[in-house]
Write a structure and sequence with these properties.
2 domains, alpha/beta, binds ligand TUI, 11 strands
């Protein structure tokens, strides 16, 4: 297909579509990452709490499963981060993203070895700092996302970050369909990252209960815990989040709250305990209705986004603002 508009995320990463599969601890392994990359997106391998040698193997497996570009994500807050960073220096994946902390001091050394570095930022201040440290692009993640989050929402944050820096921005948090993708491009993003939508992919090894929890979720299904210890996490509202609230309301210590969290994400993803496990998902889960292959998800995203771009192209304040949806067309026919 002839492309006449240059998209800097496509140019930088070599992907067909500027859509990143969001890295999710325990969820996005080599299988999901390679499937996303093979579908034309950027698959991103989560390293979460992986032992370093398992992480190395997962990089090798991903390379065996795809010859397309993929990324790896490092969680700065997670124990064993330094050992996983060593593996990155040894294995030199093409693209490295960071989450849950400020990666500034690692950016130059990684770039010196030829890697592309794309940190996740939750605010303008961190975006400016990451650009100054040499980041190639940023993933700006709003608090609608699942897992560890910041406090600003995607809609106001993306344009503020876009206005504050020159490098390209990938929007994340709250996106599950093509309409969300189109909206983020309208805000100035040049790419999008979706996590929750890929949990229900056939190629995702997460327990079926986890997938059904995403499919069963509505717009108010998630809760944010950990705010009192400055470590907010969004997950399905369940027995575990209620216990977190009780502890936080009682003014429990950091240690008590952290102890409750240990192993809970793994429990949800691997054993399917959606009552007492940490079933991390974004607020957009309410938009996700069925399991699909990664290819089906990506095809649907592209087609919905193109429909939304066309509808937006037909809108104008001067010509009246009737959205060209099927419902409105029938109403005004
Ligand atoms: O990283 C995420 N989401 C995650 S990671 C995760 S698993 C985990 N394991 C161990 C410890 C903690 C979590 C579950 N969900 N998203 C990217 C993200 N990064 N969202 C927000 C941020 C962020 C927050 C603060 C990035 C930078 C930051 O900087 C603070 C500072 O140090 O200045």
């Amino acid at each position: 297909m002839q492309r006449n508009i240059i998209n800097r995320i496509v140019e930088l990463t070599g992907v067909e579509y500027p859509i990143f599969q969001g890295p999710m601890t325990w969820v996005s392994d080599s299988g999901l990452t390679a499937a996303a990359s093979n579908a034309g997106c950027l698959g991103v391998l989560s390293t979460g709490n992986m032992p370093p040698e398992v992480f190395r193997e997962e990089i090798h497996k991903t390379r065996d499963l795809t010859d397309k570009p993929f990324g790896v994500n490092l969680v700065l807050l997670s124990p064993g981060f330094e050992e996983r960073l060593d593996i990155v220096f040894q294995e030199k994946p093409e693209i490295v993203s960071f989450g849950a902390g400020n990666p500034s001091k690692y950016i130059a050394p990684l770039k010196d070895m030829g890697m592309i570095v794309i940190p996740v930022v939750p605010s303008v201040a961190l975006a400016v700092r990451a650009q100054r440290a040499g980041a190639d692009a940023l993933i700006a993640e709003g608090q609608e996302a699942g897992g560890h989050i910041g406090s600003t929402s995607t809609l106001p944050m993306i344009p503020q970050i876009v206005d504050s820096i020159d490098i390209p921005v990938v929007a994340a948090g709250g996106i599950a369909d093509g309409r969300g993708i189109a909206a983020c491009f309208a805000l100035g993003a040049e790419g999008v990252q979706l996590g929750t939508r890929f949990i229900v992919a056939e190629e995702c090894h997460a327990h079926d209960n986890y997938k059904e929890a995403v499919i069963g979720a509505n717009d108010r299904a998630t809760a944010v815990t950990g705010t009192s210890i400055n470590a907010p996490v969004r997950a399905l509202r369940n027995k575990l989040t209620r216990r977190f609230y009780e502890l936080e309301f009682q003014g429990a210590s950091l240690e008590e709250i952290e102890t409750l969290a240990i192993g809970k994400l793994r429990e949800a993803v691997m054993t399917g305990d959606t009552d007492t496990g940490s079933v991390m998902m974004g607020q957009c889960a309410g938009l996700i209705k069925k399991k699909q292959t990664v290819n089906e998800i990506v095809e649907e995203l592209i087609s919905e986004a193109d429909d939304a771009f066309k509808r937006m192209g037909a809108l104008s304040f001067n010509d009246g603002l009737m959205i060209n949806s099927q419902k409105n067309l029938k109403k005004y026919a």
